[in-house]
Specification:
- It is built from eight helices and nine strands.
- β8 and β9 form a beta hairpin.
- The mean pLDDT is about 85.
């Protein structure tokens, strides 16, 4: 019998409404809606996307800014519901998207470890058991009791990455998070992701860095204006993307 795919994306499209006029407040918005005077244009961020990722496969997603990469990952992670098409995921998922976006800026780093962990579905007991590991990996021991609003964006991303990777997933969805922190922490983050790979984790990885995609991924797809324009081996697709960038 054929192996059940870890990720199955079938004919996925995602459409957004872009207002054609500026609405300054909620009252004006409601009035325009009731009077049917709110006009908008349709913007298709994704069009008819289909692909399969087998268990243990590592798929890179490449494309210019605005190509639809992050939207695709959010649809697959369940953050957004597609306008058309279906997504199936089999296994425990760890989505590394917009690290630190769920932090409360007035809480300390210590408090946010438990808060952010809860938003990702981790129990308090699980976070407590992994707390020392999270703190050590983030390298924020000297700042952990300071309010997160005093952290730099890099520090917040490091803490978010450390919390998000304190799990043993079967499917890992990664959006540009290996660019967080300084060069030393980037190498450390990449090694952490690779350690998950060694356990046979299925990976969906977005990056503009073709060297990372070549190093971390087996296969890749190339998006342009919301459509898949190339799909195949990582080296082959990275070569196409590098050629597009040079042009």
């Amino acid at each position: 019998m054929p192996t059940t795919p870890a990720i199955l994306v079938q004919n996925v499209s995602m459409m957004f409404h872009n207002p054609t006029m500026k609405v300054d407040n909620l009252k004006e918005y409601v009035i325009r809606v009731l009077r049917r005077k709110l006009t908008y244009t349709e913007f298709w961020a994704l069009r008819d996307i289909s692909f399969t990722v087998r268990p243990g496969e590592r798929l890179g997603v490449l494309g210019y800014n605005g190509a639809g990469k992050s939207t695709l990952l959010k649809v697959i992670a369940g953050v957004m519901k597609p306008t058309e098409g279906t997504v199936e995921i089999h296994g425990v998922v760890a989505p590394l998207l917009e690290l630190g976006a769920g932090f409360d800026m007035n809480y300390s780093g210590r408090e946010n470890i438990f808060l952010y962990g809860a938003t990702m579905g981790y129990s308090r007991a699980y976070i407590r058991a992994r707390y020392d590991e999270i703190l050590e990996f983030s390298e924020l021991q000297d700042f952990i009791d300071a309010p997160v609003k005093n952290y730099s964006s890099g520090m917040r991303a490091r803490l978010g990455f450390s919390i998000a990777t304190a799990v043993e997933p079967e499917v890992l969805i990664v959006d540009e998070v290996l660019s967080v922190g300084d060069a030393k922490f980037r190498r450390k983050s990449e090694a952490k992701i690779k350690s998950m790979f060694d356990k046979g984790v299925t990976v969906l990885f977005v990056s503009h860095n073709t060297a990372q995609v070549r190093n971390l991924c087996d296969t890749a797809i190339l998006l342009d204006k919301g459509r898949v324009i190339a799909q195949g081996g990582a080296d082959e697709v990275c070569d196409m993307y590098d050629t597009m960038v040079r042009k």
